[in-house]
Amino acid sequence: MNVLKLEDVTVRYGATTGVNRLSLEVHEGELVTLIGANGAGKSTTLRAINGLEPLAHGCIRMDGHVVSGASPAQIIDRGISHCPEGRRVFPQLTVRENLEMGAYRRIDRQRVRDDMERMFDKFPRLRERVQQVAGTLSGGEQQMLAIARALMSRPRLVMFDEPSLGLAPNIVEQIFSLIQEIRREGTTVLMVEQNAYAALAMCDRGYLLENGHIVSQGTSAEMRANPEIRRAYLGG
Ligand code: ATP
């Protein structure tokens, strides 16, 4: 059963095309990755799903219901959450306040507090820094905060945009294993990554984007065995 389905989605920025007639789907419980070079349209795809970019053409459905045209807040209410590129934590707010922002659409305040405790169990570093303003956290800590914040809306589908960007290799490993853990716990994941090697190793299925268009798709094994992907994205 697919949770998310994009059909023929086109996003334009004036005369530039961000994505062009892009179709993809994500099934319940899957970890799906979207790979591609700089400017291929990966972030645009996530921003379109998230209600941040209007579609020039096509349709996005969640659980069979059309969600294209909905506002970012309505998309959160539908169960989709976004961990944006560059983390985008609120630098002047504390760790606790950032997490509260992730739950701003929720009215079940006691459960929000319980979820915050669960986040602190999952990310002990954040518990230690709960009153620290986010702008003074290290890059890896900010990424953990951005992930925890994205989970605070209790999403069914969480989207990660370049979670490894700018982080040291040992932190990248931690972040990738956290993402796998999130999936194991039952949340569906759509992840954009430039690190094609790691992304294809951990996903169930992958899509390759070039110039705003899907040019290849398959299971993790199929993608890794594809000669063109090996040559262009996996270093031979
Ligand atoms: P990167 O990894 O570099 O972020 P990407 O695959 O995420 O690349 P996008 O950021 O989605 O690619 O960009 C797709 C295309 O849309 C590019 O040609 C880009 O220049 C263009 N684009 C993206 N955002 C805007 C914008 N706000 N205004 C104009 N053009 C844009």
TrEMBL record:
GO molecular-function terms, A-Z: ATP binding; ATP hydrolysis activity; branched-chain amino acid transmembrane transporter activity
Record domain ABC transporter: where: 4-236
SMART domains according to UniProt: AAA (SM00382)
PROSITE patterns with a match to the protein in the record: ABC_TRANSPORTER_1 (PS00211), ABC_TRANSPORTER_2 (PS50893)
Swiss-Prot/TrEMBL keywords: Amino-acid transport, ATP-binding, Cell membrane, Membrane, Nucleotide-binding, Transport
Biological-process GO terms, alphabetical: L-amino acid transport
InterPro entries recorded: AAA+_ATPase (IPR003593), ABC_branched_ATPase_LivF/BraG (IPR030660), ABC_transporter-like_ATP-bd (IPR003439), ABC_transporter-like_CS (IPR017871), BCAA_Transport_ATP-bd_LivF (IPR052156), P-loop_NTPase (IPR027417)
Source taxon at top rank: Bacteria
Family membership: Belongs to the ABC transporter superfamily.
Name of the protein in its database record: ABC transporter ATP-binding protein
